[in-house]
Amino acid sequence: ITTTKVKKTDVRKLLGQYKLLNKPAAGIITYTIRKKYILIRPLVWVRLTKTIYSETACASGSLAVVVALLKVIKINIFYIRQPSGFTLTVTQNKKNLFLSGPIIDMQKMNI
Length: 111
What we know:
Blueprint: H1 8-17, E1 25-33, E2 38-46, E3 51-54, H2 59-69, E4 77-81, E5 87-92, E6 97-100, H3 106-109
Parallel strand pairs: 2-4
Antiparallel strand pairs: 1-2, 2-3, 4-5, 5-6
């Protein structure tokens, strides 16, 4: 997780440094904090196909960004904008995080 822009061509190199290329899938999430939301860009290495894929949404990555930010930002609600344009909401209580967002039929959207 980083605020630094990462090129697709650098993902494999960075994951190699952390010895993650042997995993079935591993990724890097860059994020930008905007006024009302956090914009993420998940880039995932898929070992089986040897490709780097730009995800259109990433629920686990959204949670990972929030966990990292909770160490420095003390708020109870985060709006995480996905590359698809949809927003996931992460809220918290004392012990748990809750993720919510729209459920859509991708086939109907021609995505």
